[in-house]
Amino acid sequence: MTYQIKLPIFEGPLDLLLHLIKEHEINIYDIPIAFITQQYLEYIELLKNLNLEIAGEFLVMASTLIYIKSRTLLPKSEVGTDMEEEGEDPREELVRKLLEYKKYKEAAGLLRDKEIAYKNVFTRKSENELPDEDELLIEVSIFDLLSAFKNVIKNIKSSDIFEISVDEVSVTERINYIMEALGNSPYILFESLFSDMTRKMELIATFLALLELIRLKLVKIQQTKRFSTIRIFKAVEETKNGSEYSTVNN
């Protein structure tokens, strides 16, 4: 199966690095460059396996991380003095960029939260559409989804995954499956989409279907806090006739 998709929801390489720093509770001022490089390359490999188009800036950052890693492994006496002052940390420039980007990203997040708060000030919450915790829901980033999908794959033993080439699963079929599931429940859990799946093709098709639904703005992906349970909600889209759009056809 080959299903290439270019998503506008994809963020940049600095977003991925900040996600990894938060996920693994890393001190941004003392980044373990070998570990973060390994984690970053795993995400790049996952994107390739999903046939998702990778922007060149992600590959540039991968090269930068590998370069910084190589610099940290060199004895100080072998580091060229023409390029830097003696004792300068090769991670310094990366940390500076991350801190600056983090500052602007947090400011943008505050403005977005205020916009959402004002937009919903006259609305009533439906108890049937809220999780039991009744907490404020936040949007899920693409990297949160990729991280959750990585965990799904890890939780399935490699010996339990097998392929049946004569019975391919189409992304369109999985899109309709997700929308039908949302038609019977206010929301579904991310992990439940992959329950009882043992075929790699089916896992990938289902994840790609979810990404396509996000791109089409037919679903909302939210959680109560970062790295908590991911919930998938149906985003109500109405046609010109006023009927709710629930399936995707070829």
Structure commentary:
This protein has helices at 13-23, 33-49, 56-73, 92-119, 142-155, 171-183, 200-215, and strands spanning 138-139, 187-189, 219-223, 231-234. With 250 residues, it is mainly α. It has two domains: 1-77 and 87-123, no CATH class; 125-250, Structural maintenance of chromosome 1. Chain E (Arc Repressor Mutant, subunit A, Orthogonal Bundle). A four-stranded antiparallel sheet has the order 1-3-4-2. A hairpin with a 7-residue loop joins strand 3 (219-223) and strand 4.
Please outline what is shown here:
With 250 residues, the chain is mainly α.
Topology:
Layout: H1 13-23, H2 33-49, H3 56-73, H4 92-119, E1 138-139, H5 142-155, H6 171-183, E2 187-189, H7 200-215, E3 219-223, E4 231-234
Antiparallel strand pairs: 1-3, 2-4, 3-4
Helix pairs in contact: 2-3, 6-7
Helix and strand pattern: HHHHEHHEHEE
- The CATH superfamily of the largest domain is Structural maintenance of chromosome 1. Chain E
Overall geometric form: globular
Question: What distance lies between the first and last C-alpha atoms, to the nearest angstrom?
Answer: 16 Å
- Overall pLDDT metric: 76
Contiguous low-pLDDT stretches (5 residues minimum) are 122-130, 161-166, 238-250
Number of structurally distinct domains:
2
Number of strands: 4
- Content of β-strand: 5-15%
The largest sheet is:
4 strands, antiparallel
CATH architecture of the largest domain: Orthogonal Bundle
Separate helix tally: 7
- Report the C-alpha radius of gyration, rounded: 21 Å
Helicity level, as a percent range? 40-55%
The fold-level CATH name of the largest domain is: Arc Repressor Mutant, subunit A
Tell me, what is the CATH class of the largest domain? Mainly Alpha
**Strand order, sheet with most strands:** 1-3-4-2
The chain-level structural class is mainly alpha
